[in-house]
Predict the 3D structure of the following.
Amino acid sequence: MKSHAHLVAVLLILGVVSLFAQAPTPPSPMQKQKQTIGGGLGVTRVDTSTYLLFNIAPELAFGKLGIGLDINLRYDLENQKLRTEDWDEGYDFLRIIRYVRWGLKRDPLYIRVGVLDYSRLGHGFIVYNYRNSASYDLRRIGFEFDMDFDRFGFETVYSDVAGAGLLGARGYVKPLKFTKLASVPIIGGFELGATYAADLHENANKTWGDGLGRVRLAKDGGALSIMGFDAGLPLLSLSAIQSTLYLDYAKIVDFGNGVAAGIDLNLSGLGILSLGAKYERRWTGDQFIPAYFNALYERERYTPRDTLFISKAQELRLAKASEGYYGELTIGILGRFNIVGGYYSPVGVKNQGVLHLEFDPGDVIPGILLNAGYDKRNIGKLFKLDNNSLAYVQVGYKPYPFMVVSTVYQWTFTEEKNAQGQVVGYKTQRRIEPKVGFIFNF
C-alpha cells in the first residue's frame, strides 16, 4: 500500500506541474491549426481492467510546423506495473508522437508523420477517410507527403513505416496550364490524375469462411492492388467559392471495376459560416467496393477466426454489381463549430450503407467540452455499436477557464492472441477515461 501511495503522490505532482487536461481525439480535415497544452489525471477502464492514468497531450503549431504528442502512463494498481499493452512492441515509444506535420492538406507542401486520421487520395474513390490505427493499442506510424506545383503535383500515403501496409500515390497534371488556355476560366484548370494504391500486408488478399472452417486464398494471396484514373473540371475557383465536377474510374487488380461521377462545393465567403457539400453517383461492377481503403479497413483486412467474420478480400470476391450514391456535408461556424456528415448507400441493397460523422463545437458553447466521431458500415441499426463500428465521445465541462472535468468513451478494436502470442482475430475494445486536469490554449 505504501508503494501505491508513493506512486499516486508522484503522479499528482506531475499532473499539476504539467498543467494539462484534454484527452486527444482523432483530428480530421475540418480541424484548424491550434496550440494547446493539456492533460490530466484520471482512471482508464479498458474492458474489465482499471488503471490509474497520467496523460499529457500538447498540440503546438509554429507557422507551418505542427506537433502533436500523446503521452499516456496507465498503472495497474492490482499488479503494480504499467499497462504492458501500451509498451509491448519494440517501437511503442513512438506512440508519444501522435504526429509531426508541415502545412495542411491541400497546401503546396504537406507532410505528416505519425497517426493518420481520415486520409484520402484525390476524390476518395479508392482511399477515403482511411485510418492506419484500429485502436490505441494498435497504433501505427505512417506518413503523408503531398506537393502541388500548380501545373502538376502528387499525393502519397503510407500506413506503417515499421512494416508492410497501405501504400498509395496519386499524380495529377493540369495540361492546359502548359498552353495559352491556362488563363481561360473553367477549362484552364482541367485536371487529369492517376492513382495506385496497394495493401502490401501478407493478409491483404486472403479470404476466410468457406463454410468448413478452412482458409483459402483469393487469387495468389499477398498484396492487393487498385489502379484508378480521374478527371476534374473546376466550375468555380474564387477565393470564397470553389466547385469541381469530376469523374473517377478504378480497377481492383484481379477483381472488378467501378465508376463515380460527382460534384463538390465549398463556400467560405459567408461571414461567420462556411459550408462544404459533395454529391457522388457510383456505378460498381461485380467484385468491386468503392473507397476500399476506409476508416474500418485495418479491422476488416483479415480476421482468422470463424465463419462469422470474413476478410475484406472475401467480401470483395462476393460483391455484386450495384449503383449507389454518396453525399457529404460540412458546416463550420466561426472556424470553430464544425459538423461533418457523410453517407454512402447502394440503391436497392439493404444494410450495406457506410456512415461517417464528426462533431466538434470547439469553445463556442461556454464552459462545455464536447466532441464526437462515428464510423459505421453495413448499417442496419444506425447507432448500434458492433463489429462494424468505430466511435469516440468526449464530454466535459470547465468549472474554471483553465480546468476541465471530462470523460472519454471509445469503441475500437484490438488484436486477440493465443497462448503462443499469435494473432487469432480481433475483439472489440471499450475504453472509458474519466479525469480531471488543466488545459491552456494560446
About this structure: The chain has three helices and 25 strands. The longest helix spans residues 2-18. The first strand starts at residue 36 and ends at 46. The helical segments are 2-18, 297-300, 312-318.
